[in-house]
């Protein structure tokens, strides 16, 4: 995606709609400013209001009540005191996982590109593929400011995602 100049945070929402089975996925949000060597944005993951990132230096800034304390200029500023999140991650049944990815300032205009890729941990069975009408995980993504304002052109809803096939 071509990043809107005011996009400070890329939010990825993953809802596991399976009534009784957890779903494990990998989530990649990559910076494609350097089209030869994409890099992964720093990501923070939230499940049921709690941050899943490991604390940095042995002390996170969560208050134990599902609220993450940050010292940034807006409610969507990166949490302080946590290490960036890595995947895979397991989403419990009927739960929503939220990932915040923080792109750096664009350094190579005019192409501040990024990509959001979500893959199931286990390969899809080609003989019995999942139901295309009701996939187990619904994915949506938005580009927003640190104040939570959605940036036009940086929204991709579930049915707008394009299946990608591994070339490896």
Kindly give the count of domains: 1
Radius of gyration: 16 Å
Number of helices: 0
N-to-C terminal Cα separation, in Å?
23 Å
Following the backbone from N to C, one meets helices and strands in this order, namely: EEEEEEEEE
Strand order of the largest sheet: 5-4-7-1-9
Give a short account of the largest sheet: 5 strands, antiparallel
Q: What shape does the CA trace take? A: globular
Structural class: mainly beta
Portion of residues within helices: under 10%
Mean pLDDT reading: 79
Low-confidence stretches: 58-67
Beta strands, count: 9
Percent of residues in beta strands: 25-35%
What would you note in describing this structure?
- The protein has 168 residues and is mainly β.
- The protein has one domain (9-160).
- It has no helices and nine strands.
- It has strands spanning 9-16, 23-31, 39-40, 42-47, 50-51, 89-91, 95-102, 114-120, 137-144.
- Strands 5-4-7-1-9 form a five-stranded antiparallel beta sheet, with no helix packed on it. Strands 2, 3, 6 and 8 form a four-stranded antiparallel beta sheet that branches.
- The radius of gyration is 16 Å and the shape is globular.
- Mean pLDDT is 79; it is low at 58-67.
């Amino acid at each position: 995606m071509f990043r809107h100049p005011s996009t400070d945070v890329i939010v990825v929402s993953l809802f596991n709609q399976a009534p009784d089975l957890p779903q494990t996925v990998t989530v990649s949000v990559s910076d494609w400013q350097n089209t030869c060597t994409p890099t992964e944005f720093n990501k923070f993951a939230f499940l049921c209001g709690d941050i899943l990132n490991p604390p940095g230096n042995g002390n996170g800034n969560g208050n134990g009540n599902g609220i993450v304390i940050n010292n940034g200029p807006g409610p969507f500023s990166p949490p302080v005191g946590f290490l960036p999140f890595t995947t895979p991650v397991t989403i419990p049944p009927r739960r929503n996982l939220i990932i915040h990815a923080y792109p750096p300032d664009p350094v190579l205009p005019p192409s501040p590109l990024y990509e959001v890729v979500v893959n199931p941990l286990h390969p899809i069975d080609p003989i019995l593929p999942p139901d295309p009408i009701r996939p187990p995980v619904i994915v949506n993504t938005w580009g927003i400011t640190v104040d939570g304002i959605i940036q036009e052109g940086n929204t991709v809803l579930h049915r707008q995602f394009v299946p990608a096939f591994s070339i490896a």
